[in-house]
Amino acid sequence: MSYAATEATDAPLTLESLGFADVCDSCGAQAYVRVTLAAGELLFCGHHAAKHRESLDSSAIDWHDETDRLRSENTH
């Protein structure tokens, strides 16, 4: 679970884990990254999160990354 401080209250913001219905806004694959911006949220697969990370880092309020699930799901 990811926690981010909100600008208005500095209270922790609890974000839900990404699930089956969460898909990448760039390609439609399973989303493993949620980027919270002042204007809303973007969801990305691991590939597109890495591709857009540098350009979004300065404006991101929170970068919720669950790409570690990709490695742990494939180690059975």
Brief account:
The chain is of the alpha+beta class and 76 residues long.
Report on this structure.
This protein is of the alpha+beta class and 76 residues long. It has one domain (22-76). It is 22% helix and 32% strand. The chain contains 2 helices and 5 strands; from the N terminus they run ββββαβα. It has helices at 46-56, 68-73; strands spanning 2-5, 12-15, 33-37, 40-44, 60-65. The strands form 2 sheets. A 3-stranded antiparallel β-sheet has the order 4-3-5. A hairpin with a 6-residue loop joins strand 1 and strand 2. The longest helix is centred in the last third of the chain and has 11 residues, at 46-56. Mean pLDDT is 84; it is low at 1-9.
Task: Give me the secondary-structure topology.
Elements: E1 2-5, E2 12-15, E3 33-37, E4 40-44, H1 46-56, E5 60-65, H2 68-73
Antiparallel strand pairs: 1-2, 3-4, 3-5
